[in-house]
Amino acid sequence: MKLRILGCAGSESPGRKAPAFLVDDGLLLDGGTIGAALPQEAQNRITDVLLSHPHHDHVRGLPSFVDNLVVVGRKEPVTIRGSATTLEAVQKHLFNGVIWPDFSRLPCAEAPIIRWQPVAPLVNFQVRDYLVTAFPVKHSVPALAYRLQRDQVSLLYTGDMGPTPELWRSIGTLTTLIVEVSFPDEHAALAQKTGHLTPSLLAQELALLPRLPAQILICHLKPIYEEQIRREIAALQIPGLTILSDAQEFSL
Question: Helices 226-236 and 199-206: crossing angle, nearest 10°?
């Protein structure tokens, strides 16, 4: 499984793009950054998107992406999956014919470029070659984490989340974890209020796993606190932990 980091920041700033993670060229985990990181040929290969939740930084790349697909004449729709609540919010507040055209009806209602597909938590479903399971996580809005499994690889992408003990008790063995840490420890109260993690909160969550994944990839750092978060994460001395940067690639 190949993983490419299109964007991984917790807030936009120069050199820091919104979250989106490309798996094997065809599957996106969230859609905060697409066209700003990928040439058109690469965008054309994307067939599926899994949305963790509807916050702007996780969906903001979708409008230009689907517009590009229509402009180049692609016939195959892109399937956008998420909870029914997330998909309803994205349709109502983004692809609503006012903020952006309703591409679930364009270029024509009979053959639209977007196909919405709601997913249910804790029910396995197939996306391309992956067995996928969605898990509810605690955030300021309803949100899902996604586990992708294929061959010997088990990847969990948490999206945005605060402490969610039940996730770690039910997730099983993981080989790779993509998890957020948005704030330093001194802002733990704000992190918990808004549904995010700090380094110490992450350590508490990971302690609930029977075995740590070989790769723990940290994302969603608020740029203003990045250096402080990096120091606090290093002090945890957790093996296999990497703080992500845009444009990195991994073979899982």
Answer: 30
Distances from the Cα of 69 to the Cα of 100, 123, 128, 142, angstroms: 15, 30, 19, 29
Q: How far apart are CA 105 and CA 117, in angstroms?
A: 15
Q: What is the pLDDT of residues 76-103, one digit of tens each?
A: 999 999 999 999 999 999 999 999 999 9
Instruction: Give the DSSP H or E segment for 57.
Output: helix 56-59
Q: How many CB atoms lie within 10 A of CB 138?
A: 17
- The C-alpha atoms of residue 113 and residue 169 are separated, in whole angstroms, by 38
Q: Reduced to 3 DSSP states, what percent helix, strand and coil does the chain have, rounded to the nearest 5? A: 25, 25, 45
Q: Please, which residues have CB within 8 angstroms of residue 204's CB and are 6 or more apart in sequence?
A: 163
Q: Are 190 and 183 in contact (CB under 8 A)?
A: yes
Alpha helices (runs of H) in 84-242, residue ranges in sequence order: 84-93, 165-170, 188-194, 199-206, 226-236
Taking only the tens place, the pLDDT of each residue in 9-42 is: 999 888 899 999 999 999 999 999 999 999 999 9
| CATH annotation of 2-251 | 3.60.15.10
Length of the chain equals 252
- 0.85 exceeded by the pTM? yes
Whether residue 39 contacts residue 25, with contact meaning beta carbons closer than 8 Å, is answered with no
Q: Where are the domains of the chain?
A: 2-251
Chain-centre distance for alpha carbon 11? 14
